[in-house]
Amino acid sequence: MAPTVSAERQDMGGIAYIHLDSKQALVTCGASGTILFFQEDQTEIKRVEASCALNCLAASPKGDVFVVGDSQYVKAYKLPSGEFSSVATRFNLPVRAVAFSPSGSTLAAAGDDDTIKVINLANEKVIRAVRTTPYTRGLAYDPDSTFLASAAADGHLQVWDIATGKPVLSRKRSTPKIDVASPGRCGLAWHPDGGSLLAVAGTENDILCLERLSWDEAFVLKGPHTGPVNIIAFSPNGLYMASAGRDKKVVVWDLTTKALVCEQLGEEPLTALVWRPEGNCLAGLTETGAPSCWREPVPSHKPSPSAALDTLDLAAPIRGRSTGDEPDGEDGASPENSMDDFIEDDVNGDFTSGVAGNKASAASFNQVRGCLPQPQGPLQPGSTPRGGPGSRRWLVYTLLGCISSTEAEGFNAVEVTFHDTSRSRKRIPILNDFYRFHLASLSDKGALYASNASPDSPAMVVYRPFEAWAPNSDWSLPLPEGESPVAVAAARSLLALATSTQTLRLFSPAGTQTNVISWAGPVVAVAAQEHLLAVIASEAVALSPGARLTWLGFTPDGMLATFDSQGVLRLRTPDFGGGWMPAFDSAAEQKNKETFWPVAVTQQALSCVICREHTPVPTVTPRPTMSRIALHVPVLGAAEATGPVEDQQLLLSATLSHVREAAGRSAGCAGEGGGAAESDVVQAETEADKPLLRLFQAALKANRLLRAYELATRLHLMRSLEGSLKLANHHQVPALAERITAVIDARLALEAAEMALAEEAAPSTPPGQSADEDDAEVVVEGHASSPGHRLAAEGPPHSHRVPLSTSTTNTFLSRHPNGESVSNAAAKKASTSGPTAGNPFAKRPAGNPVNPFARASKSQKL
Which contiguous run of DSSP H or E holds residue 416? Predict the structure, then answer.
């Protein structure tokens, strides 16, 4: 006998697979108040009549009980008998969602009340009750039993830490709004691979997949649905996802390729949807309480949705390559998979057609890397996530200023604000953005915007200068069909746009396209400052284990800096072929689990917005307050007296290496190197010597003479060496003083040899021109040939890419001065030549005494 269901009115219900007599069976409930049990051959087993409408149902993973929620109670029924067992808990208003923990020992329940309860079914006690937004329409238990996700009818998405009862994620207007009087649900589901992803229904008829812990958007599934998504269900092995929407469509997605497998259009929306644990079948329940079955939703040429992953050869599909066996259509959709397979009131599906298998474990899933999640999605530094209609967000927030966007009907209102109001002589007017820009970057000269394609316009890139002496200085360009922007960066002399086709497009501020580069992999982020451009591709930077890049920028001196999702800041140094120095760890600075949202970084401090645990990104209103936190390299023995000094010394040493590298690039591009670069090097050497001298004095006091001597040899300036010699004499350590004197003698002899070589190689001064005149000319050229001046004088530059690291081929610096960037090979050769090179104990030449305390000349100081 086939089960019959009353179709009196549209309302909520539930469906689940259960085991009865070692066979798969289905149990359903709905507005009629009837609980139906039936076998796969359409034979009704039994029915249980309830006294009121039943809104939701969940079966325990243990297979010994299932629960239903009605107008006030959560009731438990035994399996396989179907007898009423107990009332698990009580609410004041109807229960709308129930979810079992993976172990089946606890149950989460919520509904129109403002409370979510976690119940221990063994003793029917509430072990956790948390206050939340009323009218909960979705619950999902994390497979690791760590988190519980909930979604309310007003679009409020929350993820709760079950152990503490506190939310680790709280985002308003993140899911579709639902009329509380309707039977609509908020789709929620965790990926079975340990909950690596949380899938939620989006506000644009799409599905957002959020990464666990960081809660960043990993990817979006969008296309077939024309109405809000009601239900989301992952296949048992996590290779597929099924979604049902208010548009009456049921869609199956291939998560390996993020592509549509097939879709079906039903007679009415579904209120429940579940995969068969073993086999290839989807079972659903309509809002009128009619069960439905879709046999073989996944085509036979694809892996089964229930097969164990370690038994499948997924190498090619996981990387998105075609197998060559797929039929025509959207990723395997075929005419045979028509609506005829989705039969109302028919549960006689072909359950034996799939490949039987067990639910894959996390270990087996990790063997097929590349499936979920993707290594890293695009990142726009300084931006905050998009909210719902009418919400405000930061398109970009930097130390210079910020750009905010407010959603309105038909357009966005974009406002540019500088922290220092004196930068702009007049207020920058609010921009009515009809393209709905989602990316922006700010420089002191203008703002670069980008938008995705819409039904009314293609994807666009737009630049608006703040103050231009010529009319029509702003410009906009459409992107080709199928190409969308993923990251933008703006600086005084260059603009960069990275797109979804792995293309990097460079522009001048006037709109001239200066270069188009095809990148080797997907671009993650770009950052620009003055004449420098950094492009980060997948796996191109050092990150904490399991972390993702969350911010990218430059220090004022041009050092590249990154910040990851574990709260670690790193600075790139030229040492060791381009290494990354950890300079800040938020775990050591956190209080009450707040988060640090980076804005800018210097060589000494991180400028950031400290956000509370429940709001991990700053709000537009009220305006966030920036804090400065000192950088700290994680040195060993930091608690000792010299620990902070060693920390400071490492930071200043990294800065010196960068300044020297920048000076070498300037010398190679400008021909002679400017006085400004020399002054920067001397200043950096002076700062780097200060902590070295402090460490030197501490070593003397501790009677660690070998360490003191080693520190003295690392001093950069002659006056610093002289200071160390005075300290050695003051502490009456003649053996150390003698060795430092030998180092000073070797340094002076080396510089004398270098000066002699320079005089021999220098051309003679032309007749009629004095040496002073030539020196003055060099200073003028050095000033005029700085990157910014040369670009302004000579027009659009040629791009030159310099690898950031010999071991990392996906990260590049782009410079815009004329000429190639060359190494400082000549200086290195000079420093390793000569009779006393590299030997601090070399004997001084006879008849040429040197006074180590004589005032050093300018060349000696360098």
Answer: strand 411-418
Q: Which of 820, 742, 818, 814 minimizes the C-alpha distance to 786?
A: 818
Query: How far is it, in rounded angstroms, from Cα 454 to Cα 450?
Result: 12
How many C-beta atoms lie closer than 10 Å to residue 235's C-beta?
Answer: 25
DSSP 267: S
Q: Which amino acid is at 731?
A: H
pTM, rounded to two decimals:
0.48
Question: Looking at this protein, which amino acid is placed at residue 150?
Answer: S
Report which of 611, 130, 140 is spatially closest to residue 385, judged by C-alpha positions. 611
What is the distance between the alpha carbons of residues 119 and 131, in angstroms, rounded to a whole number?
15
3-class DSSP state for residue 431?
Answer: strand
Q: What residues does 108 pair with on adjacent strands? A: 99, 118
Burial class (CB in 10 A: 0-12, 13-18, 19+), 762: exposed
Answer whether 269's CB lies under 8 Å from 246's CB: yes
CA pair distance 763, 786, nearest whole angstrom: 25
For 491-524, write each residue's pLDDT tens digit.
988 999 999 888 889 999 988 888 888 777 788 8
Q: How far is CA 779 from the centre of its chain?
A: 45
Going by pLDDT thresholds of 50, 70 and 90, the confidence category of residue 674 is low
CB-based contacts of 494: which residues, under 8 Å, 6+ apart?
A: 506, 507, 508, 509, 514, 528, 531, 533, 797, 814, 816
Q: Are 267 and 248 in contact (CB under 8 A)?
A: yes
Q: How far apart are the C-alpha atoms of 201 and 192, rounded to whole Å? A: 18
Q: Is 783 helix (H, G, I), strand (E, B) or coil?
A: helix
Q: pLDDT, tens digit, for every residue of 122-177?
A: 888 999 999 999 999 999 999 988 999 999 999 999 999 998 899 999 998 889 99
Give me the percent of the chain exceeding a pLDDT of 70. 77
Over residues 21-33, the mean pLDDT reads 86
Q: How far apart are CA 94 and CA 655, in angstroms?
A: 63
749, HSE (Cβ side, Cα atoms, 13 Å): 24
Instruction: Name residue 44's beta-bridge partners.
Output: 38
- Phi and psi at residue 758, in whole multiples of 5°? -65, -40
Q: pLDDT tens digits, residue range 192-201? A: 988 889 999 9
The dihedrals phi and psi of 669, each to the nearest 5 degrees, come to -85, -35
DSSP state of 457: B
Measured CA to CA, the distance from residue 356 to residue 858 in angstroms comes to: 81
Average pLDDT over residues 106-112: 95
749/816: higher pLDDT: 749
Torsion (CA) 31, 34, 39, 42 in degrees, nearest 10: -70
pLDDT of res. 732? 92
Q: Quickly list H helices, 62-210.
A: none
Q: Which of 793, 778, 819, 558 is nearest to 676 (CA)?
A: 778
C-alpha–C-alpha distance, residues 709 and 112, integer Å: 74
> What values do phi and psi take at 577, rounded to 5?
75, 15
What is the average pLDDT score of the chain? Answer: 78
Please determine, for residue 728, whether its predicted confidence score (pLDDT) is greater than 50: yes
Average the pLDDT over each of 146-150, 286-290, 344-348, 407-411 and give the range with the smallest value. Answer: 344-348
201 beta partners: 207
